[in-house]
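Two entries, shown back to back:
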Amino acid sequence: MTTTRRCEETGLHLIASPGILGYPVGKLEYPALSAAPRDPEASSRTAWNRYDVAGSQTFYIAEKPECAYAEVLSQYKRANGAADPLSKDAAFFGMTLEEYVEEIAREWSELDFMGLGAIPAGWRFDRGMIRVYMPDAGWLVDIEHPDSISAIERMMGNPLAELGVIHLTTAALRGEEREITNTIAAHLHSLTLDTGQGALGIHFGSKHGDAWCKALWLDHPDAADIITLSPDPILVTDDALTTAAERFRIRVF
């Protein structure tokens, strides 16, 4: 059951989803509940996720499996109007696309496949779909609610203006400018709500549509009660994977 309310201390719109099920796609080499710590001195913000906070770890879940796939597959999607370079190369070597992708997968890294519209089978073998249950306590900021947008503008008017945000809208919140979204996340992470605690994280809409996502800050006390199940293997026959891949025009092997 989802409960929402307005925070009396900050004016932010809050949401609680005790026990609700969410999904991330995770690498099998890491624990199911894990996220990279963020240090602006060690990595560029361009490599950060939307609501990452310096000095903390942010764990992301999606409402639906197809949304979880969309969040991780989007970087492999070919740009609009771009030709398929792998098909041309496969034909040059007298191979099918499937044969060529699996052959070069032995030599290429995952980064080499970004933007090429194809994902080798090794990508699936290295990952699993994780089921995550929200803790019974803890409030998240419903960041795209009008009350939250208004409250953020009141609290962060000058910093937002310095970042070129004249009026805060969902366009900025769903945009690619990490300096903007990370700055907002850092401020929300530092606040004390009317409960006497900080927010557990941020509830937001997927930029790919049709689903919510949650960014959970693992340094929050209630994050210790997040329940994760063992990852399920990612099969090429997975309907959710097929749906996400077809929407992005991606070939998954």
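entry 2 starts here
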Amino acid sequence: MSRFVILGVGAVGGTLAVALIEAGEDVIGIARGAQLAAIKAGGLTLRTPEGPRHANFPCVATPQEAGLREDDVIILCVKTQHTEAALAQLREAGAQGQHIFCFQNGVENERLALRYFPNVHGVTVMLPADFVQPGEVVCYGAPVCGSFDVGRYPSGSDDADAALVARLEAAGFPSAVRDGVMTFKYGKLLMNLSNIVGAALGQEADAAAINAALKAEAEAVFAAAGIAWADPAKGDEARDAQLKIVDVPGVTRVGSSTAQSLARGAGSVETDYLNGQVSLLGRLHGVPTPGNDWFNALAARLVREGAAPGAVTLDDVKAALAL
């Protein structure tokens, strides 16, 4: 059976790696920094509501070191601001016709990948997980860790999608093939607009009105651009009922991937490709997006200042946006 190459072993990639290895799959990870060192030294621990799980697997720094094979299934799990560099590394390592699956938030990764490679697939990721501590990821999903929608980019589906879904389900991830997977990814983008809100204000802040305003801007932009979207949280009632967010004993949840990046001092966040995607589409189609514009600029400032999650007050936001 073909090998999984997981490029980016963070919250999503790490959860996938442990679950796929437990299901008997051949997995190699590509990571960097302290995470790479920790996995090489002692494997990766996945903490879940049911208890910890652990897996040892080969992990390297670059696709070149992985020694890519013609039948590898490449799982792209880096944040969008790192996608261009990851794709360049894959091409340098000899990637050509391998199927590349974008297990990433936002809607830009697939378009970037299609510049380099012919077999690109979108994946809608519903997986509530944290990565803050090297050598460990925490997943709050129960009774399953997460679920996925999979399809070719820009549309359609093929045997590679069906094969991946079968292997994901065997590893405990309820999943489905979607001919229009990008409609679900645009729906997930609406959900992810609140990432920077929670990161800036802290997870306990009452930000419902702010999140609703950001979503309303995005929906107006989608309408002007003729973009269809579907709510990925309502894709399949039987499947979605299996994924609930549950506390993990001894762990305080950090929050969204944006909050995790601030907490780790990662030096960048993905907001340019979430709220910034709305800003881009708004400018292209003449639709004002002041809320998303403001939060996109705020994210850049928080990174520049090395701010921790919760550095902004609700009053600051209401004053800036006249809410």
